[in-house]
Specification:
The chain is of the alpha+beta class and about 450 residues long. It is built from 23 helices and eleven strands. It has three domains: about 170 residues, Beta Polymerase, domain 2 (2-Layer Sandwich); about 120 residues, Methane Monooxygenase Hydroxylase, Chain G, domain 1 (Up-down Bundle); about 60 residues, no CATH class. Helix 8 packs parallel to helix 10, helix 8 packs across helix 11 and helix 10 packs across helix 14. It starts with a helix and ends with a helix. The protein binds adenosine-5'-triphosphate.
């Protein structure tokens, strides 16, 4: 009869689509061939246990899967190469860290040699020692007990490794660090604590809570580089309940600890508005197509929209947002201040284009997504931005520059000007075929200058 760990592994396999279930067998077979002890760790054991405790559905487990974490007792890179022989995909090896990632059919398998870590100074990456470290010991370097449960795949298939009581904590919805200096060693765990507490509906138990408070008070956040902060905010802003985590980060003094101007930003918006942003992001996905902006960045821009311009760039730099994304955000903020008062609901499409085409598309898209109308002007701004993004900005005359020249427009700036006129007439519905365009151009040529035709076009 299957023991509990084996049952969990079976259940986990069932949560995977049939055509991906072989991954677990291949992992086991590769470990057997290389005589290595390996175990599944991190997110998957945690989530399958949550299914057992009816804390979540099994159905969406695979869809929400970010990666499969495997801890290898011994050489993870040797194991990765062995696995790769029977599980084709893309193998990336990091010799310096003793880790490897095999991506197979869209599933990322992270392979790590079991390790002991020590921290020379808060906020720095740890010194790592992998020699002769048992998986049980590796579990002791992790962030929270609920993330320190492993399910052995080989040799003792299904053995549950839970030396720190992670299962009980998970059942009781308790988030517990493994030692009192945990947040000092690695202050990214402050972010992770809030992320998991919201995701798992768990509470930081009192000793961990006190350690959290001490790390904030002693300004451990200052030891983190912007890049490390960005990664944590990226993870947070991709969570389903991202807006709650941002609000808690504010209340728990993480945001003001990063930059004083970030303090208090959550008082400017409500969770309902955060959910509305998600609806827009879902329903208007196409707005981001062809831009360099991802949904998580839109959320960052939205949460910080109320911040004063004076501090905005400095705060964004502190949290590691790339300069090109900061520029897009700053321009979107300026657009939302300057454009609405110049827009009116009676504006012709060509006038909307004249107003918006000077802004980079990334900024117009950002402005549209983060803008929450509170009055009629806001509603027409929103409509104009959307029309521009999805429709107006795609409108092009059918005639090429060469054809315009062939029809008699002099080569040089007049070609661009003529194109612009044709586009305006097309946008405003005065013309809609290639023949119309040809006629307009011939009239312009006969009149001797492109501008002379605008009036006749407007007359229809
Ligand atoms: P999810 O990806 O669903 O957020 P996960 O648990 O798989 O959850 P990862 O960030 O992939 O999260 O990390 C895998 C495991 O590595 C964690 O479960 C934890 O055991 C360990 N880990 C990750 N980051 C840290 C950290 N900063 N300190 C200690 N352990 C960590």
């Amino acid at each position: 009869m299957a023991n509990r760990g084996q049952q969990l592994l079976e259940e986990l396999s069932l949560a995977f689509p049939v055509e991906r279930r072989h991954i677990f067998d291949r992992l086991r077979a590769a470990a057997q061939r290389s005589s290595l002890r390996i175990a599944l760790v991190g997110g998957l054991p945690r989530e399958i246990l949550r299914c057992q405790f009816s804390q979540r559905e099994r159905e969406n487990l695979y869809d929400e899967l970010r990666d499969i974490d495997i801890v290898v007792e011994g050489d993870a890179i040797r194991f990765a190469r062995e696995l790769y022989r029977n599980l084709p995909g893309e193998l990336v090896v990091n010799e310096d860290f003793g880790t490897a990632t095999l991506t197979t059919e869209g599933v990322e398998i992270d392979l790590t040699s079991s390790r002991r870590e020590s921290y020379a100074a808060p906020g720095q990456l740890p010194d790592v020692d992998t020699s002769g470290v048992r998986i049980e010991e590796d579990l002791g370097r992790r962030d929270f007990t609920v993330n320190a449960v492993a399910l052995e795949l080989n040799p003792d298939y299904g053995a549950m490794l839970d030396p720190l009581g992670g299962e009980a904590d998970l059942r009781n919805r308790q988030l517990r660090i493994l030692h009192s200096a945990s947040f000092h060693d690695d202050p990214t765990r402050l972010f992770r604590a809030l992320r998991y507490s919201i995701r798992l509906n768990a509470e930081l138990e009192p000793v961990s809570m006190a350690a959290f408070g001490r790390a904030i008070e002693e300004d451990m956040l200052a030891t983190l580089t912007p890049e490390r902060v960005r990664y944590e905010l990226y993870c947070i802003s991709r969570e389903e309940r991202w807006h709650e985590i941002w609000a808690v980060m504010d209340l728990a003094m993480i945001l003001p600890g990063l930059h004083e101007a970030l303090g208090g930003i959550s008082s400017w918006w409500t969770l309902e508005q955060g959910s509305s942003l998600d609806i827009v992001l879902r329903n208007q996905k196409e707005v981001l197509e062809g831009t360099d902006i991802e949904p998580w960045l839109v959320r960052v821009a939205w949460t910080t929209l109320s911040m004063r311009d004076t501090y905005f760039e400095a705060a964004m730099n502190r949290i590691g947002i790339f300069p090109r994304h900061i520029r897009a955000m700053v321009t979107a903020r300026h657009l939302l201040v300057s454009v609405p008062e110049r827009l009116s609901s009676s504006m012709r499409p060509s006038e909307v284009v004249d107003l918006l085409e000077h802004f980079p598309r990334d900024s117009v898209a950002l402005a549209f997504l983060v803008h929450m109308p509170v009055d009629d002007r806001g509603v027409s701004t929103r409509r104009a931005l959307l029309n521009y993004l999805l429709e107006y900005s795609q409108v092009r005359p059918m005639l090429s520059g060469h054809e315009l020249i062939r029809l008699g427009i002099p080569a040089g700036p007049a070609v661009g000007e003529c194109h612009r006129r044709l586009r305006a007439m097309r946008l405003d519905g005065h013309i809609d075929s290639e023949e119309d365009e040809r006629n307009v151009v011939l009239r312009m040529v006969n009149l001797g200058e492109p501008g002379a035709d605008q009036a006749s076009g407007d007359d229809g």
